[in-house]
Amino acid sequence: MPAITNHMPTAELQALDSAHHMHPFTTGDELTAKGARVITRANGVYLTDSEGVEILDGMAGLWCVNIGYGRDELAEVAARQMRELPYYNTFFQTTHVPAIALANKIAELAPGDLNHVFFASGGSEANDTNIRMVRTYWAAKGKPDKNILISRHNAYHGSSIGSGSLGGMSGMHAQGGLPIPDIHHINQPDWWAEGGDMTPEEFGLARARELEQAILDLGEDRVAAFIAEPVQGAGGVIVAPDSYWPEIQRICDKYEILLIVDEVICGFGRTGNWFGSQTLNIRPDIMTIAKGLSSGYQPIGGSVVSDEVAKTIDGLEFNHGYTYSGHPVASAVALENLRILEEEGIVDRVREETAPYLAEKWHGLADHPLVGETQIVGMMASLALTPDKASRAKFASDAGTVGLICRERCFANNLIMRHVGDRMVISPPLVLSLAEVDVLIERARRALDECHAQLK
Ligand code: PLP
């Protein structure tokens, strides 16, 4: 086999890709016909493809490259750690400095008494840990029947059998025998699509109270935990009405339900604070972390756990763990990423400067004929495409067709913006400059214009 390099013609790379590489969440045959876009390098907030085209990455990879691309410091740390201790595990009463240092740093940054970290390689694994941890917790408390986890339709918590069951993606549940037993889903707080005649505040309360109803129906003594993203990410950057989270918190407190907040996207500065829970005033018992923890430079995630949960779990042998739990190279890189986020004041800058500027420009897109609702929290934002703003109507074509056209027009304008059905979403690197915000908005508007023209 010849060496496969960046210097090969794009068509050859695409053919080799489709011959042997199966892509996540992709119809392989369609991709083979079209050819995947080959990304060869990246710097700052820009990607470069195999044709030499520069693309503004409005998604920070997969919601993860918080510090932007091309930070040599992380490469240096990785190389140093690989030479010193490339691998050792944290099973069997051993540990190592990178895992110790990272766990301590996360405990320092995390809110409240979330002082303990169980590491994983990503968000799916961490949510699998959470399922087993909360069930083990309640069993240790003498309540082994308290083992149901409540989640939300259209939530995303990962792709493993456990985390995919926790998530509420119908397309995922249709394949491979999901969900596993004792997972229950309630409706999401998406006022634009599902709010009917209610005000957003009324709707937020109504949707939160579905949690209370589910607890009463299933039995307080059966429900272990409720899990949710502070702002639904993969579901379409859906920001709940203000009334939602206080009510969820009240219900979890009242019925002694553990609250798991999935911070895989919202964590590490995305919402303008270290965690989305701080932005939205939520008090979790467990937080799921991944993505921005290492800015995607290494695969690492984890569960950040309260003193109370950790005390109970530490009192028994928790028969759970991954070969790469607390991987030394991933931990060292994550620690360096956190150092950069903190020392360069990136999170503060997002909150005080970049996010308010982006919000002003993003909401400005609401005057476009195709755009209904615009939502934004920190550096994650969405807009709902609609044929009629006043009635919040959906397009007559299959859900997602217009979103797909719009995404293609973004691509053609060298902007990565994702579509979730007919919602367009962005989640750019946190280091986006104000001038780059302007470029992003200008390209987004052009893509919307072209999409609008194509629909006529
Ligand atoms: N939880 C949330 C909120 C996510 O957005 C994701 C991934 O997008 C996951 C969990 C799964 O993380 P991973 O893909 O690292 O397994």
TrEMBL record:
Molecular function in Gene Ontology: pyridoxal phosphate binding; transaminase activity
Required co-factors: pyridoxal 5'-phosphate
Transmembrane region(s): none
SUPFAM superfamilies cross-referenced by the UniProt entry: PLP-dependent transferases
Annotated keywords: Aminotransferase, Pyridoxal phosphate, Transferase
InterPro entries from the UniProt entry: Aminotrans_3 (IPR005814), Aminotrans_3_PPA_site (IPR049704), PyrdxlP-dep_Trfase (IPR015424), PyrdxlP-dep_Trfase_major (IPR015421), PyrdxlP-dep_Trfase_small (IPR015422)
Domain of life of the native organism: Bacteria
Tagged with keyword Protein transport: no
Family to which the UniProt record says this protein belongs: Belongs to the class-III pyridoxal-phosphate-dependent aminotransferase family.
Protein name: Aspartate aminotransferase family protein
